[in-house]
Amino acid sequence: MTAAPLSSGAVKSAERALAVLEVLTERESPASFGYIVNRLGYPRSSLHQLLRTLIDRGWVEIEPVSGHYMLGVRTWQAGHAYQRAVDLATRARPYMERVRDAVDETVQLAVLDGRYNVYIAKVDGAQNLIMASAVGRRIESHATGLGKVLLAGLSDEAIAELYDGVQLERFTDTTITDLPALLDAVRQARQDGYGFDHEEHTIGVRCSAVPIRDASGATVAAMSVSVPTARWSAERDEQIIDCLRGESDALSAALGWGGAALAS
């Protein structure tokens, strides 16, 4: 059995690496090199290089007795990270719904994935004009309120390393496009306890966001309210931030963060 044809726009090496992981995922026991060759039909030299790369990155391991290949610790870590996100989205929904009911706007929950914030939950308000976001969408963190709050959970040094050599994409005229300005915005979010973007990713949309913390005090997610500029005002933004803070503190307390009571 050979691997499926490459999909349109696919990166060949990435498709092949994923196909190897899929083969190992299907099996209940480690797979020999010959088995993987027969399943996928890849050239032996190319497969050796793929497996070596996957082993070096922790996605594949060699079973010491048989010398066969099996899934590595990084797959376990990825699975647990996914499950945590699913569990967090479920636990957060009542808190998000209370924010939605109070302000009647779109409420979103996101986690950090490298330089991106990934939406893991969303509840919409009853307004005719709502945000066209979606669970699973990934957006560059430098251009969103959610992203700034999530980045604020990292050290300045970690952020500088994350963006080393990266050109920040401009989405609108107000998008931050250089690292010093991004660090200033992140430090401000860290100090204030909330972050925002004013049409920095999408023209006509403003967003305010607050952190969600776990028992250790680490930022594990961020919750936001997105508002069309036509419905935005400084007074309304203050109301939204107060509401977000109250529910984020309550959710963080439910996750074991003792500092929530002090922040309330």
Q: Please name the fourth-level CATH homologous superfamily of the largest domain.
A: GAF domain
Q: How many domains, in number, for the residues?
A: 2
In the predicted model, the low-confidence regions spanning at least 5 consecutive residues are none
CATH topology of the largest domain: Beta-Lactamase
The Cα radius of gyration reads: 22 Å
| SSE succession | HHHEEHEEEHHHEEEHH
Distance between the termini: 60 Å
Global morphology = elongated
- Tell me the major beta sheet: 6 strands, antiparallel
Strand content: 15-25%
Query: How much helix is in the residues?
Result: 40-55%
Helix tally equals 9
CATH class of the largest domain: Alpha Beta
CATH architecture identity of the largest domain? 2-Layer Sandwich
Mean pLDDT: 87
Strand order of the largest sheet: 5-4-3-8-7-6
Number of strands: 8
State the gist of this model.
The chain is α+β, with helices and mostly antiparallel strands.
Structural notes for this entry:
The mean pLDDT is 87. This protein is elongated. With 264 residues, it is of the alpha+beta class. The protein has helices at 12-26, 33-40, 44-56, 73-103, 145-152, 156-162, 179-192, 234-254, 260-263, and strands at residues 60-62, 69-71, 106-113, 116-123, 138-140, 195-198, 205-213, 219-228. The chain has 2 domains: 12-71, Arc Repressor Mutant, subunit A, CATH 1.10.10; 81-263, 2-Layer Sandwich (Beta-Lactamase), CATH 3.30.450. The strands form 2 sheets. Strands 5-4-3-8-7-6 form a 6-stranded antiparallel β-sheet. The chain has a two-stranded antiparallel sheet with strand order 1-2.
